[in-house]
Amino acid sequence: MSDLGSSSANPLSYDRLSEFFEQNGILSNAAEVHGILTGMIAGGASIEGDDWLLLVSDLIHEGQSFKPAVRERMTEMANDICASMRDPDLGFNLLLPSDHESLLERLTSMINWVQSFLVGFGVNQTNLTGLSDDVREVIDDMVEIAKLDFAVDEDEEGERAYFEVVEYLRISAMLCFNELGRKVGASCTTNKVLH
């Protein structure tokens, strides 16, 4: 079982993935791609077949088809997100820059992740009225977080606030998945070899 959720032991690290997407002409960085995929999966989109890849292509690649290596990487990411969302040990994590990067860079990536999550989530969930109060509340909170304009203090308090918001987003994404995505994503696996 791969551990692609945690940023520390992540072979698909933020930097390597961002570089990979850039080299393959994808305008979105790793946080944005991860956010969109997480939002789609948490919102109940199926990652069976190729339809979801066409949708992601519309959202981040101007509708152009992905190169085989990109399709493989996207499929790998989607399966890992799905599997980590199902992890009984709550193994899901946001894909963000490492703690060695500046707080401003990490906050910017976090905002990009949230905005992208909302786009991905909105693909399947256009009307929030049928959702539980908890899910509606976290989506409202995410909308507010996505609008934040940070005045960053590179201090312990700023770090603590960042980690608290990231943890809230992590739990919120899993909450959405448990209500909406779990039924659809029954077939997600991480032990598939895609090479």
From TrEMBL:
Native species: Pseudidiomarina maritima
Record protein name field: YecA family protein
Pfam family, one: UPF0149
GO cellular component, as recorded: cytosol
Similarity section: Belongs to the UPF0149 family.
Domain of life: Bacteria
